[in-house]
Amino acid sequence: MFITFFTELKSAGVPVSLREYLSLMEALELDLAERKVEDFYYLARTALVKDESNLDRFDRVFGHVFKGLDLLSDAPAGDIPEEWLRKLAEKHLTEEEKAQIEALGGFEKLMETLRERLKEQEKRHQGGSKWIGTAGTSPFGAYGYNPEGVRIGQKESRHRRAVKVWDKREFKDLDDTLALGTRNIQVALKRLRNFARTGAAEELDLDNTIRSTAHKGLLDVKMRPERRNAVKVLLFFDIGGSMDDHIRVCEELFSAARTEFKVMEHFYFHNCLYEYVWKENKRRHAERIDTMDVLHKYPSDYKVIFVGDASMSPYEIAYAGGSVEHWNEEPGSEWIKRVTDLYKSAVWLNPVREEHWGYTHSIKMLHELMEGRMYPLTVEGLTEAMKELAR
After folding, report:
1. Is the pLDDT of residue 374 over 70?
2. H or E element: which one contains 227?
3. What domain of life does the UniProt record list for this protein's source (predicted)?
4. What local confidence, expressed as pLDDT, does residue 144 receive?
5. DSSP β-bridge partners for residue 228
6. pLDDT tens, position by position, 5-37
7. How far from the centroid of its chain's Cα atoms is residue 190's Cα?
8. Higher-confidence residue: 40 or 333?
9. What is the rounded CA–CA span in Å between residue 291 and residue 304?
10. Radius of gyration (C-alpha) of the chain in whole angstroms
11. What pLDDT was estimated at residue 133?
12. Which of 24, 32, 27, 26 minimizes the C-alpha distance to 58?
């Protein structure tokens, strides 16, 4: 059984050596696991796993060998059919109906038509195809379907196709006190390190104390500044909307970054970076921070990390006025370019699975704006991102 366990670990890609296996056998002979399955699990994991990134593989092999559980296939799923990716709301439309409502002719035409509707409409409408209302196929309103419209008064996004949102939206700050279930994120972040001794001399310098005491013939205590990670980080979090699906992993990243980077500032934005950001989501309408002030305050030696699913209307990136929440004077692409021009070390972490990026046009646009420095928000993706920032 133990030989099978060893070979299964090797087959699963866990880098275990014969020396480690023999150490585990020696520990079993000494009865360190006390004949308990749980104790044996922790003993085997301690002896055989050297990197937290292999813990998941170890757990699966352990369950397969000792509990009779079937291994899940690592084979990537086949291409998702296009019709599955195109969510068409609750109402089933004919091809003719879809063709009629596909688009109004671009962003400018959509905004012009909305202004006309606001002037003309005199009463509430439901289920129609023209007026501002609920359900139906009109490009203006709530709880309906249109592939390119303005969402007005709806509680939350359902199809994530709106090019503008007319509503007051409340977002929640990320929790930096969240206790991590694993240390995988912290292990990946540790790759971005540049230690230096700065600040007040509060740590005992033992070697220098011994040297100075021997030289003077009496006790001469020497102190030195604590050795810290000198890397400075600006962290920009996309918050709200489609990012609600990824709150948990973003909180884990936020908590780990708080621990790892002693000099770190964080800001929130929605969908794409524009002329202002904020620190508290409850006060984001009252206490905005000019993005230009952020760029002037923090020098170019900071490392910049964007965290967002980059899933939005392409207008939000490419057009002035394209933001879903306000009329932005400049397109989001201009602000992304300003940041990447100033901070040469900048990456984008995307919680959307990498194999799905090709299905969202805005992800491809931001991938190009970041010059390919977009990475999936996984342990492997974090590791590669930190290597990029450390260059």
Report:
1. yes
2. strand 223-229
3. Bacteria
4. 58
5. 196
6. 888 888 888 888 888 888 888 888 888 877 777
7. 17
8. 333
9. 13
10. 27
11. 56
12. 24
The count of other CB atoms within 10 Å of the CB of residue 113 is 16
Contact 375, 384 (CB under 8 A): yes
What whole-number distance in Å separates Cα of residue 150 and Cα of residue 144?
11
Q: 132 falls in which pLDDT band (50, 70, 90)?
A: low
CB distance 16 to 48 below 8 Å: yes
Report the alpha-carbon angle 138-143-146, nearest 5: 40
CA-to-CA dists, residue 266 to 59, 218, 289, 364, 370, angstroms: 35, 49, 12, 25, 19
Distance CA 17, CA 288 (A): 55
Q: Terminus-to-terminus CA distance in the chain, angstroms?
A: 45
Structure tokens at 32: 């360190």
Q: Tell which residue, 297, 187, 322, 173, has the closest CA to residue 237.
A: 173
Task: List, as one string, the DSSP characters of 322-378.
Answer: --SSS--SS-HHHHHHHHHHH-SSEEEEE-S-GGGGGG-HHHHHHHHHTTT-EEESS
Give the burial class of 16: count Cβ atoms within 10 A of its Cβ; 0-12 exposed, 13-18 middle, 19 or more buried.
Answer: buried
**Using CA atoms, how far apart are residues 52 and 54, in angstroms rounded to an integer?**
5
170 near 285, Cβ under 8 Å?
no
pLDDT of the residue at 349: 95
Which of 135-144, 258-267, 271-280 shows the lowest per-residue confidence on average (mean pLDDT)? 135-144
Pick the more confident residue, 195 or 254: 254
CA nearest 184: which of 354, 388, 16, 382?
382
| pLDDT at 289 (0 to 100) | 94
86, 100, 222, 280, 391 from 302: Cα distances, Å = 40, 50, 32, 22, 13
Looking at the DSSP bridge assignments, the partners of residue 6 are: none
- pLDDT tens-digit series, residues 84-97: 444 434 444 556 65
What is the mean pLDDT of the segment spanning 206-215? 90
